[in-house]
Amino acid sequence: MKTSVFYLSDSTGITVETLATSLFSHFDTLEINPIRRPNLSGIEDIKKVAEEISQAARESESPTIVFSSLISEESREVLRACPCELYDIYDLFIKPMENKLGIKSSAITGRSHGIGETKEYNRRMNAINFCMANDDGENILNFEKADIIIIGVSRTGKTPTSLYLALNHSLNIANYPLTNEDLESDKLPDILKPFKSKLFGLTINPTRLQQIRHERRPNSQYSSLSQCQYEIRTAEVLYRQTRIPFIDTSSISIEEISVAILNNKHLLTNIVNNFND
Amino acid sequence: MKTSVFYLSDSTGITVETLATSLFSHFDTLEINPIRRPNLSGIEDIKKVAEEISQAARESESPTIVFSSLISEESREVLRACPCELYDIYDLFIKPMENKLGIKSSAITGRSHGIGETKEYNRRMNAINFCMANDDGENILNFEKADIIIIGVSRTGKTPTSLYLALNHSLNIANYPLTNEDLESDKLPDILKPFKSKLFGLTINPTRLQQIRHERRPNSQYSSLSQCQYEIRTAEVLYRQTRIPFIDTSSISIEEISVAILNNKHLLTNIVNNFND
Lengths: 277, 277
Description:
Number of helices of chain A: 10
Strand content of chain A: 5-15%
CATH class of the largest domain in chain A: Alpha Beta
Helix content of chain A: 40-55%
Distance between the termini of chain A: 30 Å
Strand order of the largest sheet of chain A: 2-1-3-4
Oligomer: homodimer
């Protein structure tokens, strides 16, 4: 029996869905049926959704759950009358924050972002372009403009981590793959030496690396366990000898790697948030 | 006077920070000083943070705000004694959900993701690799494997939107730039014809496009207003004639474009969430 979960919003609904997804990870056995209703703009929209909620509640023995970031009092009034477990972001957070801070919320829904936030938009776009252009050491001349340079052997998670940090924190991230040649030389590649303070290393369990590489190039030297063991062992020695901070990515997510890097580099950027609901 | 805002978590803290960033967008005049304390693992960690909170409260006239996704009752007890406005995700959501659903939360903090979730991890990595390999029509043979193909003239937002959808929804996104040659032909490029149902078009205000292009190649034909006007006008005619759904990206964010595409294509994927806190 799946539990119906509604995400209601006058904008994208990404905030409530991200929050709820995180909450549901604490309930292993729960199977959910997500129902997204973004861009709700008037009382007629809300009444239609209220009818959908009532129908879901009638058809299921499991409670119907509603996460809402709607702002209008009239809309929230309609929701409160629905047969559901309602989590209303406005009541839970905005109202208490108004009281505590002594200021009114602007209560502007679905605000557009193009004009006033052009600077922030451009910063984000530039970071994404920088990241794409500096993936896999493609354009090493740009290391000077990088905020962080992620290093590691092939398939340790450099590219997805770089993209995550560019998209979510508008940082200029370059990444550099440690090649066999680099590893055999037993010291930091010359090209990286001027930027030591920007470096962050990734490592991984050799067996896990083998699995990942096997999917890309099955039964190759590249994906052999001995090759993976050699590369990882040598890269870790290099990190330790040159005191480059590093993290094992075997059993953590891109998000967790990113937070570790930000903390290590003391980069206190805010999360880019352009959906405001 | 900046308001100190603490993000406490036994894992990454991304959930509370994303939520709070969204909430603060409703308070235009509020200036915040974010203080991240992820990976809090024992009562000694919490006591140290509690001391930091008390100090922040002493030093400021503005209320100190704390967002916490800590699970342990002992830790939350310490927080409740702090001189701050506390938003405790466990109390606000997990506990009521347990009661309503009649099941206990697993209360496992900082869970690792490497082993059980290899399949989901691989799907996400493959989507990111697909997106990188199929950016700007580079590898058109792969359109068959694409979930969505985003089209538009240069600098309308194709690449960042593709990356966002790959990272957050593990979808295979290709994108194809409409060239002058395509536009002059006045019909859908042959290469796209077999995949019409996968196409989604982006458009933009020509003046905005000019600004964006000007930053890339100042004073060029490429960034002239007349060129931007011609390309946008012709692309929009093409979208309408061939009935390709499209959206104007002039004043909306990557997140908003992404939600519009997902809704249009009825892709009900869940948000990828690998940080669970």
